[in-house]
Amino acid sequence: MSLVNAQDPQTIPAQRPQCGFYLAPLLRLDPKAASLTHLRKGCFDHERYDHLQSICDTFVSGYNLALGVNTLARLEQALDARPGYLAGFLVEGAAMGSAVRDSLSVRGGHLRALQQVFGSRYSYLIQVGTGWALARMPWIGSRLFHQTPPKLFTLTLDGRGFHDAFFRPDRPGLGRMGRGTGLSAKAYDQGIGRALWFRSLARGDLALRLIAKFDPARHNDLAAGLGLAMAYAGPASHELCEVVAEGLSAHRAALAQGAAFAALARITEGLVNDNLETVSRTLTKLSAVEAAALARRGQPAGAPENRAGALMHYEHWRQNVQDQFPARSDAPRAGVQK
Asked: Burial of 45 by CB count in 10 Å (0-12 exposed, 13-18 middle, 19+ buried)?
């Protein structure tokens, strides 16, 4: 049996590459693994559906590329062939594949090589991608901490939450599947919040109903994840953002923080698109550039030395940014420098 659950329907055999990772045939993902077809119920927007599906397909492509030969060169070629808004998702999938490959290889080094080439642009997406690997190989958490920037380790747990909410939606709501406690649980819930954007097929009203099924104590972290997904992945109109913000008015600061973090990630990549600008201006009342600058300024100084310190560092960062935003859109902002 493969260490990544050979019985999982999302992994299928494939032709073995001429050279490269010898376990690739067992670990490759079927392109259908991330299909959103089963979520097409009731009224939904076909263009939004196609947009989200293209993101999921891109992630799977990145994962499979990481299991083959000449990964970095092929990844560069794949990036050049895709629209800019999909690039981060391709690297995210490659990060999952690289982490899986390292955990089963004697030599390893694939995740480190990915970071060396793409880390300056996609550090946030690489970190989230490792969380997908952690979800399927829970024993690699300590290794991942030492292989990735400590300041961003929380995003690994965020990625694990997204994975579980996306592939195992019957479990995350009960707080199982590695949610943990304390700050680990908060990170996990932020990942669930991002996944709910996909599970709702970018329907704001449905995303709100999904969040309402969770314990209210978890809503703030879910809102942060949702805001991040709306801004980074999209598509979200001004009107849709207003619906979500009104439905989560008590957690508007968390929505804004998520959008600001998305703006920082996108601007680090060198991309500001219409969706990011719309969501940023609606949820944060700032341009994407201004929101990213606010998020950057809010990051605490210093480098955490262990996992507990890493989680605390990231939570302080989130709170520093949330403190700049009011709970409601009609309240005055304080302390935000443009």
From this structure: middle
